[in-house]
Design goal:
This protein is mainly beta and 227 residues long. It has a twelve-stranded antiparallel barrel with strand order 2-5-6-7-8-9-10-11-12-13-14-15. Strand 7 and strand 8 form a beta hairpin. The longest helix has 11 residues. It is globular. The two termini are 23 Å apart. The N terminus is likely disordered.
Length: 227
């Protein structure tokens, strides 16, 4: 489960990404290889690698649509996301982004879910709220809050700081109805390839993570290409 960007992954970087796409070309594509697919701090590939990719349309007016997919190790081993929204600026520094994300697990329709999000960004700082009234596998209402900060270190190297809080109306992770996750990432583009190195962790124990290590700290390396 992602986006888009946890990609922007965590949704907090979406405004800047789609604004850039709208200025360059209305249609773009992307493909990536990663040593682990992390969604909100939790591995979706049991610590294994994943191949990912998607297509986006972004108009100069601020409207965008897209789809993104990744290999996973459950629900017939694929996730396909569909999303759309509108991004713009309130002032020269203050931007916003609102939209929806539909998570599709072919062959396991009972696990599909719809999520709505809103993002505010100011310079390199952004915050977002995601809401679903029927989250993954029918667990009920869920909220996801993020805070992100990114800045340039020079030499085309960027540092990203991310914190997220996922909450539910019921105990989903063992005895927990919420958990925190965070990551620190470094990224650089070279010869048309995007390189990313990320350290990620959650406050969930193995016992509350179904007895697995999917919620443990890990380092993820990714290679990506945009077209």
């Amino acid at each position: 489960m992602k986006k888009l960007a946890q990609a922007l992954l965590s949704t907090g970087l979406m405004t800047a990404v789609f604004a850039a796409q709208a200025q360059e070309s209305p249609i773009s594509a992307n493909v990536a290889l990663t040593t682990d697919y992390i969604y909100r701090g939790v591995s979706q590939t049991s610590g294994g690698s994943a191949i990912q990719g998607g297509f986006d349309f972004a108009s100069e007016s601020g409207f965008y649509l897209g789809t993104w997919a990744s290999s996973i190790t459950f629900d017939d081993s694929i996730e396909i996301d569909y999303y759309g929204g509108y991004s713009g600026s309130l002032t020269e520094e203050l931007g916003y982004d609102v939209g929806f994300l539909y998570y599709d697990y072919p062959g396991m329709s009972s696990d599909d879910f719809l999520e709505f999000y809103g993002v505010l960004s100011y310079g390199g700082l952004s915050g977002s709220i995601n809401y679903s009234d029927d989250f993954y596998a029918g667990v009920g209402k869920a909220w996801y809050y993020t805070l992100d900060y990114g800045f340039d270190l020079g030499s085309d190297v960027s540092l990203g700081l991310h914190y997220g809080l996922q909450t539910y109306d019921q105990d989903v992770w063992g005895t927990e109805d919420k958990y925190s996750e965070y990551n620190i990432s470094l990224s650089k583009s070279y010869a048309g390839i995007d390189f990313s190195l990320m350290f990620t962790d959650t406050d969930l124990s193995d016992a509350n993570c179904g007895g697995s290590s999917d919620c443990d700290s890990t380092v993820v390396f990714s290679l990506g290409k945009s077209f």
